[in-house]
Write a structure and sequence with these properties.
It holds the Pfam family UbiA. It is a multi-pass membrane protein. One of its GO terms (cellular component) is plasma membrane. It comes from Candidatus Iainarchaeum sp. The chain is mainly alpha-helical and about 270 residues long. It folds into 2 domains: about 1-150, Tetracycline Repressor, domain 2; about 155-270, Four Helix Bundle (Hemerythrin (Met), subunit A) (Up-down Bundle), CATH 1.20.120. It has 11 helices and no strands. It has helices spanning about 5-10, 10-30, 35-70, 80-100, 105-125, 130-145, 155-180, 190, 195-215, 225-245, 250-270. Helix 2 crosses helix 6, helix 7 (about 155-180) packs antiparallel against helix 9 and helix 10 runs antiparallel to helix 11. The longest helix is centred in the N-terminal third of the chain and has 32 residues, at about 35-70.
Length: about 270
């Protein structure tokens, strides 16, 4: 039960991305690139809460992972399931406690963020289509969490809505990719025809792109960098949707990850 496995179970890349989104949310809220101790606290809080969510998800899914992802720390025997659960609880509590020292709104958002991740792991395995929306919400809320440091949410809320729809499309795509292996989880591909799934993914991506473009055309964020990167991300999202329609869910999923990262960079470019 080495320390490296406790780091691995956090899915550190996801946690770094959550912390980065917090930074972006703050930068957009103040209209410039800046940093402070409060921002640092928010980023650490988001990292820990995201990591807690990954660990508790592995706790609830370890029996499933034993069959399809036996390399993960719990089914591989590197971490006991009880230890993983206690570890996640500790991370949730530390992350929420840190947010208390930012401000009241940040504390409430941290609690909500934690509840969303817990609800996803504990209550949606048999109805994972609800989980898609919960994960998309938790992705969007990191931007709002960053804005809570300054208290200015006007533009960030719209960008969070854009991130929500884009993330929703990506989560549905993940279900299509996983449906062959995770037949015991009730996902959208199990209850809807693939044609309707494709429309839902395309619709989510178009909604996300449209909201981001509205932010630029309304003058809330300016600069050629924001527009260029938003269009680039949008093009990749639509290409990802096309690959899904071609029944290449794996490629679609990889493309959507790239598009999501470019979209975050676009948000940051809007204040540079």
């Amino acid at each position: 039960m080495g320390l490296e496995h406790f780091f691995e179970i956090l899915r550190p890349f996801n946690c770094f991305m959550a912390a980065f989104a917090v930074f972006i949310g703050y930068a957009v809220s103040v209209g410039s690139i800046g940093f402070s101790f409060q921002v640092f606290l928010a980023m650490v809080s988001a990292f820990l809460i995201c990591g807690a969510g990954q660990a508790v998800n592995d706790f609830f899914d370890w029996r499933i992972d034993r069959k399809i992802k036996p390399f993960r720390p719990i089914p591989a025997g590197h971490i006991e399931s009880k230890a993983a659960f206690l570890y996640s609880v500790m991370l949730f509590l530390i992350g929420i406690t840190i947010s208390f020292f930012i401000n009241e709104v940040a504390f409430l958002i941290a609690v909500l963020f934690s509840l969303l991740l817990l609800a996803y792991s504990a209550y949606t395995p048999q109805h994972k289509y609800f989980g898609n929306a919960l994960i998309a919400m938790s992705t969007a809320i990191t931007l709002v969490f960053g804005a809570s440091v300054s208290g200015n949410y006007s533009v960030v809320v719209l960008l969070a809505a854009s991130a929500f729809f884009s993330s929703l499309g990506r989560e549905i795509t993940k279900d299509v990719e996983d449906s062959a292996e995770k037949g015991f989880k009730k996902t959208l591909p199990m209850i809807l025809p693939i044609e309707q799934i494709n429309l839902a993914v395309f619709g989510s991506y178009i909604a996300g792109i449209s909201i981001a473009l509205y932010v630029w055309f309304s003058g809330m964020l300016k600069g050629a960098g924001f527009l260029f990167l938003t269009l680039a991300a949008g093009g990749i999202f639509l290409y990802a949707g096309a690959k899904l329609a071609e029944k290449d869910a794996k490629a679609s999923q990889e493309l959507s990850k790239i598009a999501m990262f470019i979209a975050l960079i676009a948000f940051l470019a809007g204040v540079m």
